[in-house]
Write a structure and sequence with these properties.
Elements (H helix, E strand, L loop, with lengths): L2 H22 L5 H11 L10 H13 L3 H11 L1 H15 L15 E4 L13 H13 L2 E6 L13 H12 L5 E4 L4 H13 L3 E4 L3 H9 L11 H12 L9 E4 L14 E5 L14 E3 L1 H11 L4 E5 L3 H14 L5 E5 L2 E3 L8 H9 L14 H7 L3 H10 L7 E3 L1 H12 L5 E2 L1 E2 L3 E6 L4 E2 L15 E2 L3 E4 L10 E4 L3 E6 L2 E6 L3 H4 L5 E2 L2 E2 L4 E7 L2 E7 L11 E4 L3 E8 L3 E8 L1
Parallel strand pairs: 1-2, 2-3, 8-9, 10-11, 12-25, 14-20, 18-21, 23-27
Antiparallel strand pairs: 4-5, 5-6, 6-7, 13-24, 14-17, 15-16, 17-22, 18-19, 19-20, 23-24, 25-26, 26-27
Family: Belongs to the class-I aminoacyl-tRNA synthetase family. Glutamate--tRNA ligase type 2 subfamily.
Function: Catalyzes the attachment of glutamate to tRNA(Glu) in a two-step reaction: glutamate is first activated by ATP to form Glu-AMP and then transferred to the acceptor end of tRNA(Glu).
Organism: Halogranum amylolyticum
Length: 571
């Protein structure tokens, strides 16, 4: 390589490195810039063995700069690329609306409040994706609070606590605080006693149907005017577990003639006979309802902004009564509609998925047929691809549809550059090969010649997929090998002149040798698919995402040399 070319390589590498570092707000990466660099500069390709060394030095220099120095330097070298970055930043900022009155708070604090009754389905990813993004936008705090105060109806799954935190980490976020509501029951008791002493709550032993009739008629419960001492004593008996389920509740005293019956004297505490699955909470029998527990916790943890479903508008109105009693300021609230995900034949419901697993219809939460975050992770989908798709839905109060194709497109942008290429033949047809080289040598990646080539031997025969066998007398191009003609149930080698493809329209097909292949089981949402991969696929590592050319991307799940299990990612 002469000095002029070396200088050109350095100049182009510096632009790519600066752009890469600023785009991802991190150090530039040699691997990430080599593809675009070589693709845009064909004259560099003959020197592929020397280029990475030059690029590495440039990347080291760029990574030693401050962000402002990088911006200034890119503005000198390629102002149009700096404008492109700024335009992308402006576009990203517009995906989510500004938080209301954010400037009035010392710190924006938001919470994700999962019920840990099972691992998360895909729809659950929307809340941490949006709240995590807001946290980054405002340099705020991200709280995870497990609302696990229902030991019966939505009984907590002990394994779900860690599973949910792992999902949040996989999506790319780290909570500033993690807490369990079941650790805070005494705090709720204290606030209930304070509320009782204010005259804001009373114990009620009405049967459910009886109270419902009174409520709907806007008539007060006969227990509503008990004296404070009696209410405190009966609440103490609730706390001591002296009542069975359904015998006594504590109600927040609201407006018995409120136009919305759902807001009239709502239940704050009820008795639950079923012990909590957590040992630390198994002795409690008087449990707060979600609106009371969540309302108290939001205030005590300094939550400034709440996002909740449009169908939960009554929650804020119920909690407002408690806030008024305590003279607290209610957080800002944003509502959104439900998200519906396409593609799956399984209902996006924790209880439904759990039942299908118990019935043996799904292998587990990471079964490729399950609409769960664990399933996407096992398939090789990056959390970033999910977050970008969820944030892209915005904050509409109407229901929104999320196309899995959006997640796949995002993920393809992430994995394509790093994914090595291999051939996988399903239901292969064996064809003898007459003449031709002893092996084919397609590149590991079409944009990265520096990664080298695969070696696929041709021991007298190959396997191709049935639909790729041309009619007798017709030709196909075995990728990385050359052109062959179907002659008397064999492939006759006719040369390696690529004009057969470019000018004569000969189809390019993938193939594997007839012997010494890697047997592959590919797990997909439609069921398992089997096939044979080329020998070099044995070098792919577990957890690596590869692309089976003309088939799609897949994550390597198990690898033993001559057998492998992969999970289908996407086309």
């Amino acid at each position: 390589m002469d000095d002029d070319l070396r200088a050109k390589v350095r100049a182009e590498a510096e632009k790519h490195a600066l752009f890469n570092a600023l785009k991802h707000d991190s150090d530039a990466d040699v691997g990430a810039i080599m593809g675009p660099l070589m693709g845009e500069n064909p004259d560099f390709r003959p020197h592929g063995d020397e280029i990475p060394g030059i690029v590495g030095g440039v990347v080291g220099d760029v990574n030693g700069m401050s962000t402002e120095e990088k911006r200034e330097r890119l503005g000198e070298l390629a102002p149009e690329q700096l404008e492109e970055l700024d335009a992308e930043d402006d576009e990203d900022d517009q995906l989510l609306p500004d938080l209301p009155n954010a400037e009035e708070y010392d710190e924006v604090r938001m919470r994700v409040a999962p019920n840990p009754n099972g691992p998360w389905h895909i729809g659950h990813a929307r809340m941490p994706a949006v709240i995590g993004t807001y946290e980054e936008m405002y340099d705020g705090s991200f709280i995870v609070r497990f609302d696990d105060t229902d030991p019966e109806t939505k009984r907590p799954d002990l394994s779900a606590y860690d599973a949910i935190l792992e999902d949040i980490e996989y999506l790319g976020f780290e909570p500033d605080e993690v807490m369990k509501a079941s650790d805070r029951v005494e705090t709720y008791y204290d606030h209930a006693r304070d509320l009782i002493e204010m005259g804001g709550a009373y114990t009620c032993s009405c049967e459910g149907e009886t109270f419902s009739d009174l409520k709907n008629s806007a008539e007060p419960c006969p227990h509503r005017d008990k004296d404070v001492e009696t209410v405190l004593a009966e609440f103490a008996s609730m706390v001591d577990g002296d009542y069975a389920s359904g015998e006594m509740v504590l109600r927040v005293k609201t407006d018995i003639e409120h136009k919305n019956p759902a807001l009239r004297d709502w239940v704050a505490f009820r008795m639950v006979d079923t012990p909590h699955p957590r040992e630390e909470a198994e002795d409690y029998r008087a449990w707060p309802m979600l609106d009371f527990q969540s309302g108290v916790d939001d205030h005590l943890t300094g939550v400034t902004h709440i996002i909740r479903g449009i169908d939960l508008q009554d929650s804020a109105k119920r909690q407002q009564f408690v806030y008024d009693y305590f003279d607290w300021e209610y957080p800002e609230v944003l509502h959104w509609g439900h998200v519906q995900v396409d593609e799956y034949g399984v209902k996006m419901s924790t209880s439904t998925i759990k039942q299908l697993i118990e019935d043996g219809e799904l292998d587990g939460w990471d079964d490729p047929r399950a609409p769960t975050i664990q399933s996407l992770r096992r398939r090789g989908i990056h959390g970033e691809a999910i977050v970008d798709a969820m944030v892209g839905l915005g904050m509409s109060t109407s229901g929104v549809d999320l196309a899995m194709s959006t997640i796949y497109a995002n993920n393809r942008d992430i994995v394509d550059d790093a994914a090595d290429r291999y051939f996988l033949v399903r239901d292969g047809v064996e064809m003898a090969v007459v003449g031709g080289p002893e092996a084919g040598e397609p590149p590991l990646h079409p944009d990265h010649e520096e990664r080298g080539r695969r070696h696929i031997p041709v021991p007298g025969a190959v396997r191709v997929e049935p639909d790729d066998v041309p009619a007798n007398g017709e030709r196909v191009w075995l990728k990385g090998y050359g052109c062959v003609r179907h002659t008397r149930d064999a492939f006759e080698y006719t040369g390696d002149d690529i004009s057969a493809v470019r000018e004569e329209g000969v189809d390019v097909v993938h193939w594997v040798p007839a012997d010494d292949t890697v047997s592959v089981t590919m797990r997909t949402a439609e069921g398992d698919v089997t096939g044979e991969a080329e020998p070099d696929f044995a070098d792919a590592d577990v957890d690596e995402v590869v692309q089976f050319e003309r088939v799609g991307f897949a994550r390597v799940d198990e690898q033993s040399g001559d057998e492998a299990v992969v999970y289908w990612t996407h086309k």
